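Priority: medium. Attachment 1 of 2:
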C-alpha cells in the first residue's frame, strides 16, 4: 500500500514509545499532558494497550446500547483485575444532552467512585464527547481514555480534548477542553460499522486534505475504492494520516485561539443542518460533507478558489457516498440564525473556514455577507422550486 507524500507535521514527534502488537503509534505533543494514539487491529483485547494508562483501580466504562453488546466483553476481559463498573447509554445524537449526561454522574456517585477513577469512552463521537465531559466535571476532573469505535471518532472527535453536549439552540455549545490519557483506535471495530457511518467518517478524513494536506487529498482520490472496500491497510493509513494532521494542529493551538479553528471546515454550515433538520436526521459527517461543499462554493464565488477544485471536492465526497447538496428546507433567515450560534462568532461577526486552494484553508470574517446570503438564497430557492 502506497503512503501519502509527507506534509509539514513538525509539531508531532515521530513515532515514539513501544506500541502493542500490530499497532501504529503517534503522540499528541502537549508537554506534560502528551498522550499516545494507538491504531491497529485487535487492540481492545490486548492488556498491553491498557496497562500503562490505567493507574488506579477503579474503572467506569461508558458505552451505548449498540456498541456494548459488540465490544464491552473484550474490554472488560482486558481490564480483568480492576474494579470495573459500567454505564450503558442510549445510542444517537439526540441523546447527547444534559439529561443523558447525568446517567454517567449517577453511575459514578452510586458506586462511590473516587478521584482516581478512570472513565473509558467505548463508542463513537457521542459517547466520547459525553464521557470526556463527565470526566472533566466529576470531582473537578478525572482521567479518561478514548476508545473510538467509528471511523469519524477515530480520525476526529477522539483526538484533541474537545468534550461536551448539545443544547436545543446549538450543537456542542456546553463543554470543556479535557485531554484523554490515551486514544485506542481498534480498526477491527470498523468491520461492523454500517456503510452510512463509514461514509460519515470519510467526510472528516477528506477534511484534512482540504484544510492542510493536498498530498493526502490526492492519495484519497487514488485510494477511494480501497477505503470503501474497508481494506485494512488503506483504512489504517487514512486514520494515521488524519490523526497526524489533527495532532499537529492541536499541539500548536490546543484551545482554539487561532489555527485549530481550521479543523471546523464545513462545520458552521454542517451544525446548522444538524440543528435545523433535527439532531440525528443527518449524521454529523453527512452534514459536514455538505457544509464543506458549501464552504468551497462560497470560496469560489468570492474568487478565492478555482471551480476545478470545487469540482474535485464535490466529486470525492460524492464518491464516498456522502450528500453534497444541503437540505433545501431551511430559509435564508433560518440558516443565518443557526449559523450565528457558533463558537467562531467573535464580536457579533460570523467567521467561516474558507479555502484558497486544496490544502490552503483560512479562518476569516473578511468576506462579503451579501455573497453568503446569495448562496443561501439559491439553496432555499431550489427547495421552493421543487
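Attachment 2 of 2:
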Amino acid at each position: 500500500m502506497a503512503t501519502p507524500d509527507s506534509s509539514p507535521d513538525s509539531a508531532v514527534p515521530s513515532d515514539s514509545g513501544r506500541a502493542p502488537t500490530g499497532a501504529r503509534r503517534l503522540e499528541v505533543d502537549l508537554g506534560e499532558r502528551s498522550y499516545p494514539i494507538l491504531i491497529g487491529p485487535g487492540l481492545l483485547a490486548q492488556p498491553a494497550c491498557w496497562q500503562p494508562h490505567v493507574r488506579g483501580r477503579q474503572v467506569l466504562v461508558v458505552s451505548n446500547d449498540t456498541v456494548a453488546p459488540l465490544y464491552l466483553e473484550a474490554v472488560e476481559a482486558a481490564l480483568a483485575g480492576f474494579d470495573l463498573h459500567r454505564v450503558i447509554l442510549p445510542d444517537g445524537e439526540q441523546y447527547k444532552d444534559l439529561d443523558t449526561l447525568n446517567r454517567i454522574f449517577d453511575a459514578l456517585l452510586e458506586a462511590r467512585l473516587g478521584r482516581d477513577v478512570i472513565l473509558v469512552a467505548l463508542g463513537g463521537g457521542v459517547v466520547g464527547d459525553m464521557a470526556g465531559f463527565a470526566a472533566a466535571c466529576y470531582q473537578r476532573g478525572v482521567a479518561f481514555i478514548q476508545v473510538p469505535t467509528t471511523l469519524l471518532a477515530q480520525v476526529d472527535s477522539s483526538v484533541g480534548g474537545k468534550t461536551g453536549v448539545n443544547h436545543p439552540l446549538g450543537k456542542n455549545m456546553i463543554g470543556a477542553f479535557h485531554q484523554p490519557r490515551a486514544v485506542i483506535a481498534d480498526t477491527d471495530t470498523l468491520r461492523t460499522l454500517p456503510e452510512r457511518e463509514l461514509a460519515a467518517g470519510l467526510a472528516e478524513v477528506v477534511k484534512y486534505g482540504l484544510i492542510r494536506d493536498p498530498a493526502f487529498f490526492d492519495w484519497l482520490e487514488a485510494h477511494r475504492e480501497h477505503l470503501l472496500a474497508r481494506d485494512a491497510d488503506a483504512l489504517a493509513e487514512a486514520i494515521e494520516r488524519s490523526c497526524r494532521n489533527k495532532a499537529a494542529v492541536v499541539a500548536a493551538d490546543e484551545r482554539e485561539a487561532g489555527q485549530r479553528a481550521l479543523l471546523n471546515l464545513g462545520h458552521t454550515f454542517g451544525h446548522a443542518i444538524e440543528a435545523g433538520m433535527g439532531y440525528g436526521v443527518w449524521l454529523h459527517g453527512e452534514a459536514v460533507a455538505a457544509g464543506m461543499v458549501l464552504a468551497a462554493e462560497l470560496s469560489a464565488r468570492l474568487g478565492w478558489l478555482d471551480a476545478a477544485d470545487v469540482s474535485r471536492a464535490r466529486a470525492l465526497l460524492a464518491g464516498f457516498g456522502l450528500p453534497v447538496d444541503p437540505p433545501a428546507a431551511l430559509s435564508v433567515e433560518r440558516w443565518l440564525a443557526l449559523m450565528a450560534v457558533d463558537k467562531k462568532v467573535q464580536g457579533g461577526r460570523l467567521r467561516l473556514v474558507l479555502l484558497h486552494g486544496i490544502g490552503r484553508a483560512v479562518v476569516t470574517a473578511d468576506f462579503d455577507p451579501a455573497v453568503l446570503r446569495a448562496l443561501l438564497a439559491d439553496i432555499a430557492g431550489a427547495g421552493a422550486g421543487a
